[in-house]
TrEMBL record:
The chain crosses the membrane at residues 31-49, 69-89, 96-114, 134-155, 162-178, 231-248, 255-273, 285-303, 310-336, 356-375. It comes from the Bacteria. It comes from Nonomuraea pusilla. Signal peptide: none annotated. Keywords: Membrane, Transmembrane, Transmembrane helix. This is Uncharacterized protein.
Length: 392
């Protein structure tokens, strides 16, 4: 059977580029766009698979060949192909971006068989916070970080560069927030139990009860649906989720960037909510508070720039900029109010107010680290370049 004409034309176009080279070689813009379009498709497949995956596991007993896993695997196959192309040709990435992509893909591929072994040994292990699952997120974290850097360094200025960068950060936010979905699904599953209804199939509930060594009762349901401490959800959301939005605001360099990235992720979660529930899958609490988080981040950067430009001494700029940054990061403690409000209106995982102190300190440390890394790796925000230009 002969390949279609479109396949022949694509092969004829791509073949001249298949030459070995070092990372950082000059990349034709048409090839650059095709490579990163491939990344957007791969990450979209993984996004759709992961979005379906948690809901699936709160309804059915685990299956290695479940449809969400197959959809995610299709995205992973494309990721591996793109990683090989970047590594062999050197096109579309610098050395740092290539290493991040390669290490991230490698960690992810190692984590897959470890996760399968973990499920064989430990049974259900539904928690999203298990070590093998965390390796999957970590691998994806480095992989997307490499893609973000590759696009940031190679794309020409303009609307396309900004839009794609925002989309990549939305994928980034989805990956880091993914384990939090366990509590977001779990809290509504417990609410359904309390209302004398269940979302999970009897075979799944019985398997979980047998593994815990107790009958199918509320204690078992809580252990199944909320197996981690209550303080973990808000602390992780503030420290890790907000840090991604900080990085997005830094690299995109425009007011509203963090809000739009958070809004894109929350919008996606809102869109798939009825698609899943109307087809019989369990619902989840949607993290609407992340939009408020993005807005606070944007406002913090808006306030920070004039404060930094107020003093233009040799060390004064850095001191004022970082002092203002630290002060603004404390404001994100108010996000606990947003989570509490959502809990009362729409449903959210349990909130431990006393953990706000640790969330604020953790966010301050990570935020300053993101600033330091951005400056060190040449990914400074627009504000920093303006201040540097204005310094006599």
């Amino acid at each position: 059977m002969k390949p279609p004409a479109t396949v022949k034309r694509a092969a004829a176009w791509a073949l001249p580029y298949w030459t070995r080279g070092q990372a950082g070689r000059e990349t034709p813009q048409d090839l650059f766009r095709v490579l990163y379009l491939g990344w957007l498709v791969a990450l979209t497949l993984k996004l759709l698979g992961s979005a379906w995956d948690v809901s699936w596991h709160f309804k059915w007993l685990r299956d290695d060949l479940a449809p969400p896993h197959l959809l995610n695997s299709a995205g992973t196959a494309l990721v591996v192909a793109l990683t090989v192309i970047h590594g062999y040709t050197g096109y579309g990435v610098d050395k740092i971006a290539l290493r991040l992509i390669q290490w991230g893909t490698g960690v992810f591929l190692v984590a897959v068989p470890l996760d399968l072994i973990n499920h064989r040994v430990n049974g259900l292990d539904i928690t999203s916070w298990s070590p093998s699952h965390m390796m999957l997120y970590l691998g994806t974290f480095f992989m997307i970080a490499g893609v973000v850097r590759g696009w940031f360094m190679g794309a020409p200025p303009g609307r396309e560069r900004t839009v794609v960068l925002g989309a990549l950060f939305a994928f980034f936010l989805e990956n880091v927030h993914f384990p939090e979905q366990h509590q977001e699904y779990g809290v509504l599953s417990i609410g359904a139990w309390d209302n004398h209804a269940t979302y999970a199939e009897p075979i799944l509930l019985q398997f979980a009860a047998d593994q815990m060594g107790r009958p199918v009762d509320r204690v078992m349901m809580v252990g199944f649906a909320l197996p981690v401490p209550d303080y973990l959800y808000p602390v992780y959301a503030v420290v890790v989720g907000a840090s991604v939005l900080v990085a997005a605001r830094l690299m995109i360099g425009r007011f509203g960037a963090a809000t739009l990235v958070a809004g894109a992720y929350v919008g996606f979660r809102t869109l798939i909510w009825p698609l899943l529930t109307f087809t019989g899958f369990p619902p989840s609490a949607v993290p609407f508070f992340l939009v408020a988080c993005g807005l606070v981040v944007d406002v913090a950067f808006l306030v920070r720039m004039p404060a930094a430009r107020a003093v233009l001494g040799a060390a004064g700029v850095t001191a004022v900029a970082y002092g203002a940054l630290a002060a603004q990061s404390v404001l994100l403690g108010h996000l606990y109010g947003a989570v509490k409000g959502q809990n009362g209106l729409l449903g959210a995982p349990p909130l431990v107010p006393a953990s706000a102190l640790w969330a604020g300190l953790g966010l301050m440390a990570v935020w300053l680290t993101v600033e330091w890394l951005a400056a060190r790796r040449g990914l400074q925000p627009i504000e920093a370049r303006v201040i540097a230009t204005a310094t006599p």
